[in-house]
Write a structure and sequence with these properties.
This protein is an all-alpha fold. The chain contains ten helices and no strands.
Length: 193
Amino acid sequence: MIKHLRSRGESPILNHIILMVLVLFAISPIVMILFNSLKNSAEIGRNPLGPPEAFHWENYPDAWEKGQFARTMGNSVILVLGTVAIELVLGGLGAYSLAQKQPPGSSVVMFYMLVASTIPIWLYLVPLFFTWRSLHLLNTHFGLILIYVALNAPFTIFLLRSYLLGLPKDFEDAARVDGANELQILTRIVVPI
């Protein structure tokens, strides 16, 4: 490629200059956010694009307290860990059964999940609200975790199923010969825990 560019007379310096301009264009919003986070309100109004005249490090603890970031981070950790744990167990079991056992109608199930993952959430937002209200799951971590699990289940099953289809069957057959049941094969051969 380089020989081809040099044979056409193009300079690699020009390519480097273009790349540097693109990098500056890409990181400039991040730099401006960092600059503005270290300014007071009056200085942001006077000089929104330039570096701060004086660094106001107290902005960070103030934002942490006023924005209640400790509570926000705690909620995020609970939601992520709960969603990932349930998703791995349920999605893993579903993907394992669809990939390794291939029950009758598994292609219909996969097609259903593909279609279900394309439906926008806004179509069932109102019925979901009334259902969650009647189940007393509004404003709860568990209610939100269930929604995240339901939204991500098709992708998880597709992803894990494609991984499981690539595994050689010889290991599972050898484990069955040695007397392993399906749960032992799943936890010791397919996904070693």
